[in-house]
Amino acid sequence: MPQTRTKNENGTGLGDLLRYWRDVRGRSQLDLSLDTGISQRHLSFIESGRSVPSRQALMDLAEALDVPLRDRNALLLASGYAPLYSEAPWDAAEMRSVKRALERMLRQHEPYPAMVMDRYWNVPMTNTASPQFFGHFIDIASRPQPRNMLHLMFDPDGLRPFIANWESVARSLIQRVYREAIGHVVDSETDRLLNDLLAYPGIDAKWKNAGANGATPALPVVPINFVSNGQVLSFFSMVTTVGTPQTVAAQELRIECLFPADDETEERYAQLMENQCCDK
Known about the structure:
- The protein is α+β, with helices and mostly antiparallel strands.
- It has twelve helices and seven strands.
- The strands form two sheets. Strands 3-1-7-6-5 form a five-stranded antiparallel sheet. It has a two-stranded antiparallel ribbon with strand order 2-4.
- Strand 5 and strand 6 (231-241) form a beta hairpin.
- The longest helix is centred in the last third of the chain and has 17 residues, at 263-279.
- The relative contact order is 0.11.
- Residues 1-11 and 211-218 have low confidence and may be disordered.
């Protein structure tokens, strides 16, 4: 007797979810069958709701489709299984070792800004230098927490007026949202964030398309050129993620570290921070 189609807590059937991820990855049932050893006929039965895979078979499918951990839990729920990956927050007890590593990396990056961000660019942790540097331009303490780095960059009342090359930075950030989305998939919350950013004045909707500028890059990175007292402070960033995440929070957190892009910035930044310490 065919098994009844099961659904997750949002009412989405397992077959719908699997078809969605196959479409996202551009994989046919035959491709997935060859990757997992699960027959194409069985896959067809799963997607039509006529069969429910074993827990292991489902995880094999998720691995082959590179499904993010949060969405693997959704697949499990839709199949009637308990979630496998913890969705505890970043500061939960089980994340203690990861949190300590994040804190150590933040400290070691002093005196330059570094911050921890979640998948939606909210900032739960920073080193000491971050609020000191950004506070040179705006009243960072007045911004609601958790502060969102993208809104800080796009808001005309935020950092935007202090970025000399703001248009190229903004365009590259929009494209980074797509490139760095968990599993390279823009979910509904990320799409809402993008729409909020595009609603700011002076934003070109074409920036939402990767490669919209069409220009050949002259530099290895897109620098962020902050202007302070008529002087340019040019930075680039490097992003670090957890190598083998086994919880949702561990997969979705990342550290972004700013580095001086040239010797002049290194010298000017040191003087700026020294002046700030003297003014206190």
